[in-house]
Structures are given as C-alpha cells and as structure tokens.
Amino acid sequence: MPAVTMHRQIARPLDFKRWEWWILALAVGLLIILATWGKGRRERLAYERFLEAAPQVQAALERFAADHGGRFPPDAMMTSRPAGLDDKYINWRKSWKIDYEVHDNEQDGQAVCLEFCGPFDERLYFGLCKNPEYRRRYGRGQPIPGHINRIWVIIENAQIMEDARPDPEGQAPPPSGS
Q1: In whole angstroms, what is the distance from residue 127 CA to residue 144 CA?
Q2: What region, left, alpha or beta, does residue 138 occupy, with left being phi > 0 and alpha being psi -120 to 50 degrees?
Q3: Residue 6 in domain
C-alpha cells in the first residue's frame, strides 16, 4: 500500500508580491508623515494663540494697575484668573494655559510675568519666570532652549497689591463693601 503524504496548506495572508510591499511601505510612511505634521501644526497653533493672548492680558493688567494706583494683582494659582482682574478688564480663559506669576526680580522689586504652560493637553509648569536671564532674553514668547513653555514679561519692577484675595474658582473677589 502506498504511503499517503498529507500536505498541509498554510494560509499566508502576508504573502505579498514585491510591488504590494512597496505600496504598503509607502502608505505607512505617508501616515507617519501626516501624523507628525499634524502634531507639529497643533503645537505651532498653540504657541501662536499664546502670542496673541499675551499682549491682550498685558494690556488688561496695565489697565488694572492704572485703576489701582499702579499696583498689579498678586500671583495667581495655576492658570487661574489673577485676583481682581474681572471681566471688566479681560475675559480670562483657562484654555489659554497661561499662568500669571509674580516673583522677586533680584533688585528689591517684583517681576510680573506670564508663563505659557505648554502646547499639549496637559498643563506643565516649570517656573521659568523666576529666572532673570530667561526674562531678559526670552520675555516676548521666544522659544527657550531646552523648554517647551514660553514666557511673556509684563513688567520687571512692579508694585503688587497686598489685599486682593484669590478665589479658588478662578473668579475675581467681590468688590470691597459688598
């Protein structure tokens, strides 16, 4: 009796011809390029939004200071509206991811600065406004080597209000006498 040889048939769905491999590689490469380009575009737009918002915030803070004897609000909590800076001055948006900061300027005064907390969904804070060299060199939203955040210096030597109480919800405190 002859021996019966059984051949197994193996399904090989990736048994592509050479031209099919080339098309697959081109398609994957195109998808990678589009994803990378999209991420870079989103980052660039986030920086552009900061560079548009920062001068508006600066103008609002300067109007606030003019109305309050030259004094600026105290430091605000992470991306919250500075105390007292109500909608009369600016419609503050947490989506800007701008942190209003007040720091010693190492010259017996206070520096008022904004830190953009990164182009990504997550807010990242590095305290870049504390660094006087960064304030001097990158104080108008320029890229800071080694950092994704940017800063905007409002004033290097400011008077700061002592009596404004920040509201935990990010809203301005009620007017005095209410």
Answers
A1: 13
A2: alpha
A3: no
CB 154 within 8 A of CB 72: yes
53: domain range? 33-160
Give domain status of residue 169, yes or no. Answer: no
Asked if 111 contacts 103 with a C-beta cutoff of 8 angstroms, the reply is yes
pLDDT digit string (tens) for 43-94? 889 999 999 999 999 999 999 999 999 999 999 888 889 999 999 999 999 8
Report how far residue 92's alpha carbon sits from residue 109's, in angstroms, rounded to the nearest whole number: 26
pLDDT in tens, 126-151: 999 999 999 999 999 999 999 999 99
Residue 146 placed within a domain: yes
d(CA 86, CA 133): 31
> Could you give the number of structural domains in the chain?
1
Q: How far is CA 13 from CA 10, 19, 106, 119, in A?
A: 9, 15, 69, 42
